[in-house]
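Anyone up for a design puzzle?
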């Protein structure tokens, strides 16, 4: 099936959300809100609406990163649709890529599709440990994370546009109907130091962070999909570096995240790496909280537990 024909055929299904144009961070938030609203109206379950949210974030950020710089006019736009059929949901994206990037993307997807669940998990952890921190964060992790969360293959459709451009469509199926939890209203980032403590208020796409140097209680809660992960997490890592040198006696770090993208995962791992530097006389405990039935979030914590040498406690909570 041709890529453009594929999107026309999708219109025959129930459309949850659709977009065609230039995609940026503001558009990402708008698409997430629209999709969320429709899924809430349909009364979908929490675990899979979180799954749809995570996959959408990774797919849209993939589009933002890989728009071809030489594309002009209608070749510079991207397409996204979330539709529903009798089997569940289809999340589909399309954009113009240079042929070399298109071939590379198709090859990577083919290799990921051939992996077992355990192979994907190991590959994800190895990639996360191997990749360097950068503004783009978890480059290479996004597609792996999509396949893991979807629990199925990524399908590709390609149109050859001209001598150097392809139009590449990625399709992911989520089989179980789902529900989204409402976002908090947008609040501007407010970052402040109070003596030895660091407090960062939550926004629509970044978590609330409370780091208390006196009690040793460090907490992260909310959503972590910042446009620039390096900019957001750098002050946290700087604070941790100083805090580790102060040789605290006891540290308890709590993660209660509704969602986090692969870019954030690199920095969460670095937070754990900083805590590993604490002297053995310091008591450290990681409390990883996850919503009941959210197996993806629980498994994410288990991945970190396998990578770092820190004690973890897994805590389930209800909405």
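Challenge accepted. My sequence:
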């Amino acid at each position: 099936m041709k890529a453009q024909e594929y999107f026309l055929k999708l219109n025959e299904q129930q459309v949850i959300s659709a977009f065609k144009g230039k995609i940026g961070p503001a558009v990402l938030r708008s698409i997430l809100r629209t999709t969320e609203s429709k899924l809430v109206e349909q009364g979908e379950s929490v675990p899979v609406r979180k799954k749809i949210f995570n996959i959408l974030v990774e797919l849209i950020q993939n589009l933002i990163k890989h728009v071809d710089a030489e594309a002009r006019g209608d070749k510079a736009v991207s397409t996204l649709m979330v539709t529903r059929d009798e089997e569940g949901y289809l999340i589909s994206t399309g954009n113009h890529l240079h042929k070399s990037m298109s071939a590379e993307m198709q090859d990577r997807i083919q290799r990921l599709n051939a992996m077992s669940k355990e192979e994907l998990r190991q590959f994800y952890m190895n990639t996360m440990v191997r990749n360097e921190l950068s503004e783009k964060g978890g480059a290479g992790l996004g597609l792996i994370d999509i396949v893991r969360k979807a629990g199925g293959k990524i399908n590709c459709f390609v149109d050859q546009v001209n001598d150097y451009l392809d139009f590449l469509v990625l399709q992911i199926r989520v089989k179980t109907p789902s529900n989204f939890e409402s976002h908090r209203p947008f609040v501007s980032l407010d970052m402040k130091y109070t003596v030895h403590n660091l407090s960062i208020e939550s926004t629509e796409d970044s978590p609330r962070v409370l780091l208390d140097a006196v009690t040793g209680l460090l907490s992260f809660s909310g959503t972590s999909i910042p446009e620039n992960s390096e900019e957001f997490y750098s002050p946290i890592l700087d604070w941790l570096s100083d805090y580790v040198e102060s040789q605290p006696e006891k540290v308890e770090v709590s993660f209660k995240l509704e969602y986090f993208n692969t870019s954030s995962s690199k920095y969460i791992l670095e937070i754990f790496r900083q805590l590993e530097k604490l002297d053995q006389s310091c008591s450290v405990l990681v409390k990883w909280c996850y919503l009941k039935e959210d197996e993806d979030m629980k498994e994410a914590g288990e991945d970190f537990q396998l990578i770092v040498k820190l004690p973890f406690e897994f805590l389930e909570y209800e909405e």
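A detail worth pointing out: Residues 191-317 form a domain with the Transcription Regulator spoIIAA fold (CATH 3.30.750.24).
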